[in-house]
């Protein structure tokens, strides 16, 4: 099909999707007297419908940014077809709810003033042929009270299931289109990114935050300002409470900040000055971590850094996430400890999901982490309150991880060979191509591998290093570590977490996403990772 035909059909499907959403919400509202929860169901449909409207206007309205063409027309034909298929699926799902409600109205003796029919998808529809999406079914009076039991016991549950399915599909549509907006070749066009940053409909969909991060990544070298602060001014009379070797907490004036220590010259026996290149990399990373980010990144806000000259280290300064106690503990320390006990199955799935979404989101804005491992994943306890409102025991919520430990060479486009490092506690999380003295550039697949190791730890609830009796000290080569981890995943993980979780972990460790002829943005890999790992974990977490 030619691009003009696809565009016409896409307009028609979006308009029909909007009309069906309005009609379904209106029909559901007629049952509000039966059940207070019906209002929430109606609001859910209307919220999703508002996103559909914003998506239509963002994709299809002509814009000077694209020379008077629409954003939709900037995508390749295969992407346009995928968008169209997604929208057809959403229309079909939502139409099920509408038809169910509409049949109920007819059987109760009420007539609708409008009947929806989807257009024939094989017919080209020019813009002028698209019906106005303003009319939807109206009902003159409420359903009879005798139907209350049937609605409460039967139809309401069916409608709730359909609406939940529609909401999930709608989320997938928006995430996929965001990926096509930012993860393809068009995502490097500064004018396009500025348009996503400023456009009202883009802001409704949440595309603006990621566009801003993309801009910050591409312009880090040009517009970064120094976030270095004076150590003495920051600390003043407060003490630094060290949390292991990597972190610290400063408390003062009712507030607290988290410090993350990074060595810039670990082998030097005496203090050395920061060279200009290292200082520049430190500042760039601080600036990028300072940018506003969605919660899906699971990264605290960086507000600056200072130098610990005597230790040849720098300390990044992060705000402690709001609502949490400033007493962090790493995932690695939790895995090693017998107190608290292992989290529930549900918490483990949500932890795995949020970490996989973090990696997916980093890929979207063309970032890599480079040091993704359990010692760089922190939990901040929440405080239980007794009946008098006083704080009691600290509680760890394992579904609320925070990711730190980003390497200096943050953007994916930076050259990153890395230094020689034979530390097994770090190598066990590294892809074989990145162990010892790496010769390959760091890429998305290397972060995915590290995620696979962490997901294996979460599933088995034990540190990766403990999976070998001598901590991999006798490992012959990097590949032997990978094979050993895979054996544990294949033999033990299915029993503990189920075959879906096991399959997602194995895909991360093997990198076998069945991707061929990918583009330089690794778009196919990103899509496959979302489908085979993120979506699988999402469905599993939702079902527990």
From TrEMBL:
Pfam family of the protein (one): DUF7580
Domain of life: Eukaryota
Name of the protein this chain belongs to: Protein kinase domain-containing protein
InterPro entries tied to this protein: DUF7580, HeLo_sf, Kinase-like_dom_sf, Prot_kinase_dom
Protein kinase domain span: 229-529
GO molecular function: ATP binding; protein kinase activity
PROSITE patterns xref list: PROTEIN_KINASE_DOM (PS50011)
Organism annotation: Dichotomopilus funicola
């Amino acid at each position: 099909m030619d691009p003009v035909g696809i565009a016409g059909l896409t307009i028609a499907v979006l308009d029909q999707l909007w009309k069906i959403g309005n009609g379904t919400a209106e029909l559901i509202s007629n049952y509000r007297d039966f059940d207070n929860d019906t209002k929430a169901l109606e609001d859910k449909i209307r919220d999703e419908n508002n996103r559909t409207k914003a998506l239509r206007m963002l994709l299809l309205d002509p814009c000077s940014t694209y020379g008077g063409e629409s954003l939709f027309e900037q995508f390749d034909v295969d992407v346009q077809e995928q968008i169209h298929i997604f929208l057809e699926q959403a229309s079909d799902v939502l139409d099920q709810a509408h038809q169910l409600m509409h049949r109920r109205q007819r059987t109760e003796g009420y007539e609708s003033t409008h009947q929806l029919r989807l257009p024939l998808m094989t017919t080209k529809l020019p813009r002028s042929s698209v019906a106005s999406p303003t009319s939807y079914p109206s009902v003159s009076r409420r359903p009879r009270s005798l139907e209350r039991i049937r609605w409460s016991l039967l139809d309401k549950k069916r409608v709730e299931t359909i609406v939940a399915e529609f909401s999930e599909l709608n989320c997938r549509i928006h995430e996929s289109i965001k990926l096509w907006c930012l993860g393809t070749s068009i995502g490097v066009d500064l004018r396009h990114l500025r348009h996503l940053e400023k456009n009202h409909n883009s802001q409704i969909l949440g595309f603006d935050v990621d566009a801003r991060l993309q801009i910050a990544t591409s312009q880090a070298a040009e517009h970064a300002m120094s976030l270095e602060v004076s150590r003495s001014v920051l600390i003043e009379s407060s003490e630094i409470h060290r949390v292991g070797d990597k972190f610290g907490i400063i408390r003062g004036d009712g507030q607290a900040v988290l410090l993350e220590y990074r060595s810039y010259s670990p082998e030097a026996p005496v203090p050395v000055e920061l060279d200009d290149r290292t200082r520049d990399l430190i500042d760039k990373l601080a600036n990028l971590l300072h940018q506003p980010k969605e919660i899906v990144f699971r990264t605290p806000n960086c507000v600056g850094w200072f130098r610990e000259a005597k230790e040849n280290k720098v300390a990044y300064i992060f705000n402690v996430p709001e609502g949490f106690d400033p007493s962090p503990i790493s995932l690695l320390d939790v895995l090693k400890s017998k107190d608290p006990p292992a989290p529930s199955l549900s918490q483990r799935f949500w932890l795995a999901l949020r970490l996989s979404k973090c990696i997916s989101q980093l890929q979207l804005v063309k970032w890599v982490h480079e040091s993704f491992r359990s010692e760089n994943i922190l939990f901040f306890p929440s405080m239980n309150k007794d009946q008098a409102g006083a704080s009691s025991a600290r509680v760890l919520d394992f579904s609320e991880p925070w990711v730190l430990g980003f390497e200096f060479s943050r953007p994916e486009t930076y050259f990153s060979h890395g230094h020689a490092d034979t530390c097994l506690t770090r190598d066990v999380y590294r892809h074989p191509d990145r162990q010892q003295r790496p010769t390959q550039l760091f890429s998305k697949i290397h972060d995915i591998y590290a995620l696979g190791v962490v997901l294996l730890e979460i599933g088995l609830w034990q540190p990766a290093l403990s999976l070998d009796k001598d901590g991999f000290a006798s490992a012959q080569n990097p590949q032997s570590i990978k094979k050993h981890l895979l054996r544990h995943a294949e033999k033990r993980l299915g029993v503990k977490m189920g075959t879906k979780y096991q399959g997602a972990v194995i895909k991360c460790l093997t990198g076998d996403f069945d991707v061929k002829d990918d583009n330089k943005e690794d778009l196919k890999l990103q899509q496959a990772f979302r489908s085979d790992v993120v979506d699988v974990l999402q469905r599993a977490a939702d079902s527990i």
